[in-house]
Structure to design on (326 residues):
């Protein structure tokens, strides 16, 4: 069994090789970029192998009870805690999760970019299409949950039910991976503190507690009733589905001033993205021209409720009059 100390000490290159050997025969490797470990449970766990420290953690110092770990070279909890968490979660699971170990997240996310590229040209296993959610362990603290530009309230509620609290961040590997795969993602705390400094330390018990919760998520994603949570992207203060083509994003965002996403999705499903323009022109009472700049949410909740009734009752007639796909 690999220990936390075993994960902390090696260089990124050596750790990559050790993990590749550990999961031999069950991986897809892009040398120096990423290592994908194939699983059975429809959840992808993500962590990065590099740290910001120039030297490896040759000396590890422990608190008297062994719970707190530090190093004069920098302990590298960001993100060796995440790497250890993925390994331990895999070991403890009856139905194994998918694991993604990336390289150089701290230096421009080269590993995540390579993974996205391979995914886009279908060089990765087709079974990845069945992933229901992505869980990254690359966050300081003990109970943070960060979603970046991804929004799915149902998924956020589910993660919150595990004791995590929504927080905010700027970037991690899932910022690239989640929209590329079109599935929701969250970055969870991994028990380290003071990242990117020589004063960084690891709280072992807090990391183990998070790993236990990740184990619950792995088990529950395998259930038939566990949904595949779609990635929704925030645009101009709203959240726009990742599968909306770029040329329609502004139209979709404008429509959110007048109706709920579920309504728009019903029309997209029935008539395709081409329906967005006549639908917008009907409910807004104005013609669609050039994209607007970024701004607020526009109408309030009460105004939306009224618009919802208007759309549901009148839009089909409007589509006929405007020569839609009907």
């Amino acid at each position: 069994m690999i220990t936390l100390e075993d994960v902390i000490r090696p260089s990124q290159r050596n750790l990559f090789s050790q993990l590749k050997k550990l999961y031999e025969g069950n991986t897809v490797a892009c040398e120096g970029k990423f290592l994908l470990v194939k699983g059975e449970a429809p959840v992808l766990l993500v962590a990065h192998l590099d740290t910001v420290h120039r030297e490896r953690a040759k000396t590890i110092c422990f608190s008297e009870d062994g719970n707190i770990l530090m190093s004069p070279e920098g302990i590298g909890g960001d993100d060796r805690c995440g790497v250890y968490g993925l390994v331990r979660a895999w070991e403890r699971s009856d139905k194994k999760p998918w694991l993604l170990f990336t390289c150089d997240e701290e230096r421009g996310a080269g590993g995540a970019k390579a993974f996205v590229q391979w995914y886009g040209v279908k060089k990765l296993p087709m079974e990845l299409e069945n992933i229901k959610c992505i869980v990254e362990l690359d966050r300081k603290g003990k109970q943070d949950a960060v979603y970046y530009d991804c929004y799915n309230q149902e998924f956020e509620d589910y993660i919150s039910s595990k004791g995590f609290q929504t927080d905010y961040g700027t970037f991690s590997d899932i910022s690239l991976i989640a929209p590329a795969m079109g599935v929701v993602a969250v970055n969870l705390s991994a028990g380290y503190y003071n990242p990117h400094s020589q004063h960084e330390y690891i709280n072992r018990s807090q990391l183990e507690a998070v790993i236990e919760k990740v184990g619950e998520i792995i088990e529950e994603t395998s259930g038939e009733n566990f949904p595949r949570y779609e990635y929704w992207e925030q645009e101009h203060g709203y959240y726009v589905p990742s599968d909306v083509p770029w040329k329609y994003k502004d139209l979709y965002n404008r429509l959110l001033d007048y109706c709920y996403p579920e309504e728009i999705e019903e029309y997209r499903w029935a008539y395709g993205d081409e329906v967005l323009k006549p639908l917008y022109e009907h409910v807004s009472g104005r013609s669609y021209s050039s994209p607007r700049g970024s701004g607020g949410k526009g109408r309030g909740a009460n105004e939306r409720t009224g618009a919802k009734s208007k759309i549901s009752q009148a839009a089909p007639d409007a589509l006929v009059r405007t020569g839609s796909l009907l």
